[in-house]
Design a protein that fits this description.
The complex is a heterodimer. Chain A is mainly alpha-helical. In chain A, α5 runs antiparallel to α6 and α6 packs antiparallel against α7. Helix content of chain B is about 40%, strand content about 15%. Chain B is built from six helices and five strands, in the order ααββααααβββ. By secondary structure, chain B is an alpha+beta fold. The radius of gyration of chain B is 19 Å and the shape is globular. In chain B, α1 crosses α2, α3 crosses α4 and α4 packs across α6. In chain B, strands 1, 2, 3, 4 and 5 form a five-stranded antiparallel beta sheet that branches. Classes of the chains: A mainly alpha, B alpha+beta. At the A-B interface, α2, α3, α6, α7 and α8 of A face α1, β1, α3, α4 and α6 of B.
């Protein structure tokens, strides 16, 4: 094979790989996760919305944009309480529509806008999970996330004239999401290697002996046993460091998935980081390909209807 | 290139040369700004309490210090889906930032005094302090609806857990940070969700 043929072959494979949308089931699950967590954030904070994001709240409108924590513009940055109310309700409706997968390609734009605005209106509200959502919003915009489990999936998809463009955008976004996840886990690992308590394994005992994160069960054991603390600390670091390598292999993905699920369910159960854990788990949905999901549930998930 | 720059922006500070760090963080900011040092390099090894008090408009009478954070943290532990869950996120982050910058990032007394003076100027107050002041106003207004208040004050306390940071036999002294008092603002919406 001449070098030219080889390049040609590689390009053909690239075209074939990017020309059809990948991991539609995982992307739809991610939509459920993102729509669900943003809806949950807005609904559960309903009673304190003015305090957290309102014009006279903890980040008053006069101080908005004038602090180091400032992220960027926000459509919630309004002076009028009434207008803020309208925006909040609209944001809630948009996130419910996104969750339901109703006119998803269109709704994704306001969903991204409102979600970004919510985070930038009060940057002090941003924890690790919110941050991952914030930095992946641009990719979510171009993702086809409504092929399954959605209102859109119930009606036939019109034959797209730009199907190839749309597939390339979708697959590129998917790739960006995966790389971003790898950066998150890799960077978390690296910053732990700088800390003496992660190196000697005592970090978890420290966390569990705080009132802040006291586990509901086994609190005494978890906060005093150096062995258990070290085991969890090294497990956490092993999951984080291996993640960026495992996700690129078909078999490795199962290991990465299992590790991440165990890690994040642990933070939910033992540390009470519910929102953070659920959001991180939602992102793991894009690890598996459609046939791996079908293997997992051992029953046919219908393909999107094409006329 | 995109992810290369983002990767550079999240690497530990010591690992990246200054000018490169500047380029990568300018690139990532604000749309891709991120920081992944969750519980790292070391987890905070202490529990936070946020005490607030208020001064009546007679100019002399202060209320007792009240811990406003503990009850919220305990409520969220029992009911993780309560409206207080994100109030807690906001409060914990607002309280930890000034403690960290005062006690762990600035070592000398002189640096700490300068920082404190900076905090007293209205124009250079970090968002976290504004958030705490306004929370203090909201909490005091809810607690003392009948009092005519003119000022509020916040005191942050970090009680360290026994660990490597203390030498054996050393007495456990909580770190206390009493913030400059702030004008009472009756317009802040309630944080209790009632």
């Amino acid at each position: 094979m001449t070098p030219l043929e080889r390049v040609h072959g590689a390009l053909r494979r690239l075209e074939a790989g990017f020309g059809t949308k990948r991991r539609l089931i995982g992307c739809s699950l991610l939509r459920l996760g993102l729509g669900g967590t943003v809806t949950y954030l807005l609904l559960s904070s309903w009673q304190v919305r003015h305090y957290l994001w309102g014009p006279a709240g903890v980040m008053p409108i006069d101080a908005f944009g004038k602090t180091d924590a400032h992220l960027g513009p926000s459509i919630f940055a309004v002076h009028s309480e009434a207008l803020f109310e309208v925006m909040y309700v609209t944001g809630l409706l948009v996130s419910v529509a996104f969750l339901a997968g109703w006119r998803t390609r269109l709704i994704a734009f306001p969903f991204v806008l409102f979600t970004w605005s919510l985070f930038s209106r009060n940057p002090l509200m941003i924890n690790g999970a919110n941050m991952l959502v914030a930095v992946t919003l641009l990719y979510v915009l171009f993702l086809d996330s409504s092929a399954h489990f959605s209102v859109d999936a119930r009606r036939p998809r019109p034959p797209g004239r730009f199907e190839t463009v749309s597939a390339w955008l979708h697959n590129t976004s998917l790739l960006c999401l995966l790389v971003q996840l790898c950066i998150a886990y890799g960077a978390s690992f690296l910053s732990k290697t700088v800390g003496p308590s992660w190196r000697d394994g005592s970090a978890l005992a420290t966390i569990f002996s705080l009132v802040e994160y006291r586990p509901p069960i086994l609190a005494g054991l978890l906060s005093t046993s150096h062995f258990i603390s070290a085991a969890i600390a090294y497990f956490t670091m092993a999951v984080e460091v291996s993640y960026p390598f495992l996700v690129w292999s078909r078999r490795g993905r199962w290991v990465a998935l299992a590790g991440a699920l165990l890690l994040h369910s642990g933070t939910i159960v033992f540390m009470g980081l519910v929102f953070f854990g659920i959001t991180m788990i939602a992102y793991q949905a894009i690890l598996l390909s459609d046939d791996q999901y079908r293997l997992l549930v051992k029953r046919r998930i219908p393909s999107p209807a094409v006329p | 290139v995109h992810f290369g720059l983002i990767t550079l922006s999240v690497l530990p500070e010591q690992a990246v040369p200054g000018p490169v760090e500047k380029v990568s963080s300018d690139y990532a900011d604000p749309l891709f700004r991120q920081e992944w040092s969750l519980f790292a390099p070391d987890p905070i090894d202490g529990d936070v309490q946020i005490f607030v008090r208020a001064r009546a408009s007679d100019g002399a009478t202060w209320t007792e210090w009240t811990d406003i954070y503990g009850p919220i943290r305990d409520e969220v532990r029992g009911r993780p889906f309560s409206s207080q869950a994100f109030v807690r996120v906001n409060l914990l982050r607002s309280a930890l930032a000034p403690i960290k910058v005062m006690f762990f990032d600035n070592d000398t007394l002189r640096e700490r005094q300068e920082l404190f003076l900076k905090w007293q100027q209205p124009g250079s107050r970090p968002a976290e302090l504004t958030s705490l002041d306004r929370t203090a106003s909201a909490a005091m207004a809810e607690r003392f609806p009948d009092l005519d208040l003119e000022a509020v004050q916040t005191r942050l306390v970090l009680t360290l857990v026994p660990g490597d940071r203390q030498r054996p036999g050393q007495r456990q002294v909580p770190l206390r940070l009493t913030l400059p008092e702030a004008k009472f603002d009756p317009s802040v919406p309630p944080l209790s969700g009632k």
